[in-house]
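re: that complex we talked abt at group meeting.

here r the seqs, copy pasted straight from the sheet so there may be weird spacing, ignore it
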Amino acid sequence: MPEGPQVHLVAQKHHELLSEKKIAFASPDGRSTELAEAFNGRTLHKVTAVGKHLLYYFSPDYQLHIHLGRFGKFRTGELPLPDEQTALRFCMSSRKNWVELRGAVAIEHYAEDDVRRLTARLGPDPLNHDSPDAGFEKISKRRTPIGQLLMDQSIIAGIGNIFRAEMLFRAGVSPFRPGGKVEREILRRMWDDVTVLMQYSLEHAGRIVTTEPHDRQYPKRANVARPDAFYVYHRTGKPCRHCGTPIEQEAMGGRTVFYCPHCQAD
DNA sequence: GCTGCATGATGAA
DNA sequence: TCATCCTGCAGCA
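got the structure back, here u go
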């Protein structure tokens, strides 16, 4: 499900719901029993996000690291806990609220060093007001297609398949152009643009809308189902909104990239 | 009921 | 580059 903004939104929400509360943990599917026991009864102080990673801070050596992967999903509610426990990986609750987690890739006990290692291997995150220079530097040294580099979390943290496709279209850059062939000025413009798009998503319940104008009215649960939210993502065969050329798709690094062959010519 | 696919990431070859 | 892990749902029979 999640690209950067949705993860940051989860961090905000869980912080509001659970910070400064004593937390009870459970691992109904038994995969994180040990961790649940180690954290049980501790007080949560802060929830933050870096790229697509979540960090729950209890104390320097008791931090909880969660990565949702492609399918991870949270649900929240007020006690009592729901009966349905199918595929339920993890549950955190205060005296008032519960948070359930399914499908996540990582639920881990992090000490200070682990957190340092994580942040060290992630590139700048547009939502954390990082300087993009280190990311630009890496891109300019590579011959790998820019479309693939943008998905690499060690180059820029938080971008996923939707933002990758949409930011390239909005910049008129072909996903196949080698990283080193994308001028610094263009990189800068793409970074600024995707920062705005991600910020918008963060402020609109995680909805991603890259077409203009951004203030169009959308129903609450939109996205892939909203055909006019995107320029190219999942629009294979449909006419480009700018030039009418059919949108194309291609496999790139095991993922599908969508682009307009005319507006994003090499 | 089955199949394939989806906003992710890793480790082996 | 490929196989693998994770869940849910659309599309099909």
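couple things i noticed - Residues 1-3, 6, 52, 67-72, 105-106, 151, 153, 160-164, 208, 223-224, 233-234, 255-256 of chain A lie near DNA strand B (CB under 10 Å from a C1'). Residues 184-203 of chain A form the longest helix (20 residues).
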